[in-house]
Write a structure and sequence with these properties.
The structure is a single chain. Strand 1 and strand 2 form a beta hairpin. The two termini are 114 Å apart. Helices cover 49% and strands 18% of the residues. The relative contact order is 0.05. The chain is an alpha/beta fold. Among the domains are: 111 residues, OB fold (Dihydrolipoamide Acetyltransferase, E2P); 136 residues, Rossmann fold; 54 residues, no CATH class. Strands 1-2-3-5-4 form a 5-stranded mixed β-barrel. A 5-stranded parallel sheet has the order 7-6-8-9-10. A 3-stranded antiparallel sheet has the order 11-12-13, with no helix packed on it.
Amino acid sequence: MSTETQISLEKSESQVLTVEQLNREVRQLIEGNLSLVWVQGEISNFKAHTSGHFYFSLKDEKSQIRAVMFRGSNARLRFKPTDGLEVLVRGRISVYEPRGEYQIVCETMEPVGAGALQKAFEQLKEKLKKEGLFDAGRKRPIPLMPRHVAIVTSPTGAAIRDMINVISRRSKSLQVTLVPTLVQGEAAAPQICEALKKAIQLPNVDAIIIGRGGGSMEDLWAFNDEKLARMIAASPVPIISAVGHEVDFTISDFVADLRAPTPSAAAELVVKNTEDLAQRVRSLQRMLTIAIQKHLRAETQKWKGLSSRLIDPKRRLMDLMQRNDELLSRLQGATLRYFEKRQLKLQVLQERMPRPDQVIQKVRNRIELIFVRMANRIQSILQKKNAQLQENMSVLDSLSPLQVLERGYSMTQTKKGIVYSASDVKVGEEIYISLMKGSLRAEVKEINQKESLWTLKKD
C-alpha cells in the first residue's frame, strides 16, 4: 500500500464522512491506481439510451460488472451491440457516485470470434432483408436498349476504363455520363450517396452503374453503408451494382436491381452487342414467319370444315318456326294444367275452412266461462281474507290496554310519560290516573319505594 493511500485511510478514520464523500474517495482511489484495462465478457441487459449512450453489463460464468459506453465512443462502432454477444472492450474503471457502483467506462469494443466489419455487415444485411429491400418483387428490369447510362465510380480507377472500353466496343450511340466520387475511405460513403443523387437527377438517364474494382473488405466498406442502400432501393432509375470481383458481396449488391460480378460484366449487361441484337432480330423474324404460316394453315382448315357443315338459312328458319310452335303448344298445356291444380286445391281449402260465425260463438262461450270462473275465484278470496281480518282483530283487541283497565286496573302518567316505578315521580308532582271510565288528576303526598303491590298482597 502506498504512503498516500495510508495517509488517506488514517484521515478517514479520524473523521465522519458523508456517503457522497466516501464514494468520491473510493472513486479517486480506484481511478488513481487502475489505468486502462482490457476486459472480455458477454453483453447482457443492453440498453441504448435516447441520449445516445450505451448501458449494459459484462459477465462471464461467475461474475459480472456494469459498463457504460458514451456516445462519443460508440459512434465509431461499425456494429450494434446486442445481448448475448461476446466482446472485448478497453476502458477505465470508475465509480458512479450517486449509486456507489463501480463500472467500466468503455472506449473501444470488438466482437470476439468475428471482425467488427463482418459483424456490422451481417447485422445490416439481416435488418434490410427483414424490411424487404432484397425482395426480387420490388426490383426493376434493366432497359433492353438504354440510350443514356450514368456511371458512379472513381474517375481514376481501372474500373471506369474497363467499362468505357466495353461500352465503346459494343455500342457507338450510347451516351455515358461519369459521376465521379471517392470509392474508398471514411469519406467515401457520403460522397457516393451525393454522386448517386446527382446521377438520378440527370435528364433522360435509363440506367445507373455503381461500383469499383476489387479490394479487401475494408476497401469495399463504403458500399455497405445503410444510407446508400436505402437510396439505391428508393431510386426511380434501375441500378446495377458492380463492386469488386465475383466473390465479393456488398449490401449494395443485394439491394440493387441487378448485381454484376465485375464492372466489365456490368457494362456488358447494360449494353447489348449490336451484332448479337441483329442476329436475335433475324431469328425472331424467322420464328414469326413460321408462326404466321402455321396459323394461316390452321385457319384455312377451320374455314373449310365450317363451310362443309353450313346449312341453307331458309331450311334452318323453317326448323326454328316448327320448334317454336311445338314449344308454344307445350307452354299452353302446362299453363292450363297449372291453373286446374290450383283451382282444385282452393276448393279443398274452402271445404276445410270453418265458418266465421261458428268460430266467434265458440270464443264467446269460452270468454263467458272464464268470467264465471273468475267471479267465483274472487268471491272465495274475499271470504278468506274477511275471516283472516276478523281473527286478527280479535287478537289485536285482546292485546289492547283497554282490556286491562276493564279488569279494575288503572294507568298512571306524568307529563313525561307512563309511571312504572315510585322513583319515576316526586312528592308534590302532579299525576294523571286513567280508569276504565274517566280519569283522575292527583298530587303525590308520599312515596314509599320499599313496598310494592306484591308486598301489600302478602300482608
